[in-house]
Amino acid sequence: MDSTPSASSASPFDMVSGALADYLREAGSTAARGPAAMQSAPGARRPAGESPENGGQEQILGAVSLDRDLKVTSCNLDAAPFAGVHVAPKADFAELLPPGDVPTVTQRLRKVLETQEPHVARVQRLRRDDGTELVVSMSILPAVAPRGGLTVSLIAMAKRLHLYASATAIGTSLDIDETAQSLAQSLLAWGDVAAVDLDFAVWTGEAVTGHAQERIRLRRAALVPDRAWPEGYLTRGDDLPREASRLLVGAVTRDDVPQAIVIPDREAIERVLSDPRLARALVPGDRPASVACIPLVVDGPEGTAGPIVLGVTEVWRRPERLFRDSELLDLQELVAKTARHVDLARQHQREHAQVLALQRRLLPRPGSDTIDVASVYQPTTPDSAGVGGDWVNSFPLPCDRTALVIGDVVGHGLGATAAMGQLSVEARALLSAGLGPGEVLERLDETVTLLDDSDAGLAAGYSALGSTCCIVVYDPIDHRVMMSNAGHLPPVLVHPDGSAVTITTQPHPGLGTEFAVREPFDVQEFTAPPGSLLALYTDGLVEHQEASIDDGINRLTDMVRAVHPWDDLQQTARRMVADLPPHGRVRDDVTLLLARMAGRRSRDTATWQLPVGDDTAARARTLALSVLRRWHVSEHAQDSALLVISELATNAVLFGTGPISVRLVYAGGRLTCEVGDTGNGRPRLRRSGALDESGRGLHVVHKVTTRWGVRWTDTGKAVWAELDG
């Protein structure tokens, strides 16, 4: 009578246990026959590790039999995925396990022995001889009587699980290098060396098109394992030789259809490359090797013909380990899923470059001979989603003044950058038009409110309400500074004697908050003698979890106070940004502007206060003439300057009130004339009729000067004009 349980009477676990026992016996006899027996079988043309039963798929099943003392009685770990996993008969099963897993697994084994209840599908690590680990699905089954003991089944699904995990993990970063490195590390599961070579256009963010192979330029984006390689072999960051680029791209796009290729041995590789230098550059070392090349392909833009190759991935391994069709399908599946992520990273790189170009464009240019300016901008993250709305600018104003502007627009990304650009340009235009810091903030406040309307702001999912801005205007002649602040952190001013102070104004919550506060922006005036150092910054520099913001400002003040007058200001700014955040951790964009006031030499300027009278213009001309001669201004420039001063002084007397001020500045071959009064009427240049008596003075000023304009003061206005000296 057959003692084998019938299908109806046997439990599922008995069936599995019996099948494993049969597998062990069959595998043992097959192993005894050896590979030669398999290859000599009629019609046997399959590689080792494949069988007709699995349809050419790689064998992934292993089994170990244990006695009641958890000693190995027999095992079959001959399948290719278990290469390097060995255990001797009568050895403890624990020898297969990492030390940290031994107590837990041993407890599970003993529990199955005691309860005869199987423990199924435990994710477990096994140790290889070289110290690496193999992840398997392990099931512990009670052995069928009368053998007793246990049967441990091991299913090496690591590659399929690895394929799924890799496809899920790759693309979590929009950084091209990180994406390529993640892909290369994932590909290493199928070989000994993995490389990713990308078209150079991927890094530059250029539009990818089906360009001719002659223009292909591949650069090695990733290479694993990361170790010392033979001289001449291409490593990360190297450009592939032009011939190699054409060969690789041409090979994987045969008949204009991207496809994977396998070159089975080193001799074939050298024959294909036909150049020892290329072979040395592409083949890792002198050992025998085979390579599988899989293209990174995306669909071309609408209207283009066929797919586009972004690059090529290569997996190298020993030639005796043939690339099976199933493995090539796995490789193509992983690379195909990754190609889209690489293209997204390329598009993001282009967007990021555009955003940073805009932001860098707004950074201050080098200062003038009256003020030394240095700035540092450091985004939180290297991607455009992390680029915030911090902005800083410095630019010259008429009458030898300089404007310093810093702001922090709410949010990150393109919306914040666009708002930042608009506010920065508007602030510069308004300051150049002669408005004071407080008036400029009032208009920026209106702009932020308009940006937040239903069409431009909230409908786009972005709001700039609450953005901050601080505007500083420096006059190098009288060393006066005017400042207005809209919710920004207070600047730090260090005087030449080392004393430091934070410049505070009447508190204001920020731009676009008129619904909460309808107060004018306060304007603060203070003196900054030559040698003073002013620091403007955003909250990312001083705000941290480890300390209060006041502590951060105090640390910044100490660092600014320690700056030596001879220190290079740009290097100092970089050092402060690097050293100030605790442990280098930054949660927000960091922006710092340092300005060292030098002032204008007194011998290059002249200023007078004149009472209003019929002889005011004549007195202004007489005083100016002596100064212009002392400066050795050309006769033509003298005549033009005296004419301009006369016209401006006459207009001030006719249309203004109170005393008038006259200021002359001569520097860098440029002469600036400024006449101020207490009137608030704005001179306007307009067309005059043939018989009109008025309005001709401004036409004269317009003709003889390079530019002229009006700026508003606390007491009235000042009309200025510039001439070539």
Short description:
The protein is an alpha+beta fold and 725 residues long.
Number of helices: 17
Structural class of the secondary structure composition? alpha+beta
State Rg: 39 Å
Helix content: 25-40%
Average pLDDT reading: 78
Largest sheet: 5 strands, antiparallel
Question: How does this model look, in words?
Answer:
The chain is of the alpha+beta class and 725 residues long. The protein contains 17 helices and 25 strands. It has a five-stranded antiparallel beta sheet with strand order 2-1-5-4-3, sandwiched between helices. Strand 3 (119-127) and strand 4 (133-142) form a beta hairpin. Helix 16 (635-655) packs antiparallel against helix 17 (696-704). The longest helix is centred in the middle third of the chain and has 37 residues, at 325-361. It is elongated, with a radius of gyration of 39 Å. 37% of the residues are buried. Mean pLDDT is 78; it is low at 1-57 and 454-460.
Please write out the topology:
Elements: H1 12-40, E1 61-66, E2 72-76, H2 102-115, E3 119-127, E4 133-142, E5 150-155, H3 158-169, H4 176-187, E6 193-199, H5 200-204, E7 218-224, H6 242-252, E8 261-263, H7 266-273, H8 276-282, E9 290-298, E10 308-317, H9 325-361, E11 371-378, E12 388-396, E13 402-412, H10 414-432, H11 437-451, E14 468-475, E15 480-486, E16 492-494, E17 500-502, E18 523-527, E19 533-537, H12 539-542, H13 549-561, H14 569-579, E20 590-597, E21 605-610, H15 616-630, H16 635-655, E22 660-667, E23 670-677, H17 696-704, E24 707-712, E25 717-724
Antiparallel strand pairs: 1-2, 1-5, 3-4, 4-5, 6-7, 6-10, 8-9, 9-10, 11-20, 12-13, 13-14, 14-15, 15-18, 16-17, 16-19, 19-20, 21-22, 22-23, 23-25, 24-25
Helix pairs in contact: 3-9, 4-9, 10-11, 15-16, 16-17
